[in-house]
Amino acid sequence: MMLELRGVHAHYGPIHALRGVDMAVQVGEVVTLIGANGAGKSTLMMSLFGLPRASAGHIIFDGEDITGLPAHAIARRGIALVPEGRRIYPRMTVLENLQMGAALADPLNFEVDLQRMCALFPILGERRHQRGGTLSGGEQQMLAIARALMARPKLLLLDEPSLGLAPLYIRKIFQTLRELNRDHGMTILLVEQNAHHALRVAHRAYVLQHGSIVLAGTGRELLASAEVRAAYLEGGQVR
After folding, report:
1. Mean per-residue pLDDT, 143-157
2. Are residues 55 and 99 in the same domain?
3. What are phi and psi of 70, to 5 degrees?
4. How far apart are CA 214 and CA 208, in angstroms?
5. For 35-49, what is each residue's pLDDT tens digit?
6. In which domain, by residue range, is 99 found?
7. Is the whole model's pTM more than 0.85, yes or no?
8. pLDDT tens-digit map of 103-133
9. Same domain assignment for residues 23 and 95
10. What is the Cα–Cα distance from 52 to 9, expressed in whole angstroms?
């Protein structure tokens, strides 16, 4: 098991954001977490880094309880996050952003990994000396993913990677996730509001509602679920 959450609770002050979450990600899987705005999806992602720290329960990564570790120690164990809104360094060039992503990796691997990212996203190679803030939204999302991959993570976390992107870039991002998993064995935990794309790429999926897991199954099972269709393709809530 790559990642396991056991009865995880988290709070923002008096707000009870996560309520006893149990979920797991196995090695080599793509696992998707879907839910409405405010369901607690981003909180769950950030709680893996202790921001906020779990107020109860346990987070197990690669056989180790990381619940009480600081964020930098968790990152060093092989988890990389592509945050919501991309959050690249806009005044730095594409190359400098990728160098930041490689800060925890072996410097001997940098050139190899840089070429790998330029092959994965050719536009980044063409614009390596361009400031990140001048890229389009889709190009910035590619840069955010490449920056995370430069750390050579065991587990890649992505928080709303399709948010605000044109359909062309959305297709490219999800195609890239499939390739990373299929061709390179990358283990991925994906938080996404675009249920259709997210469930199609997922081996397994969970539905989060009001801080609790309310449904779980394979990506195909949830895509075919009448409850999921009603909640995320036709409006409403899972009951």
Report:
1. 97
2. no
3. -70, 160
4. 6
5. 988 899 999 999 999
6. 88-153
7. yes
8. 989 999 999 999 999 999 999 999 999 999 9
9. no
10. 10
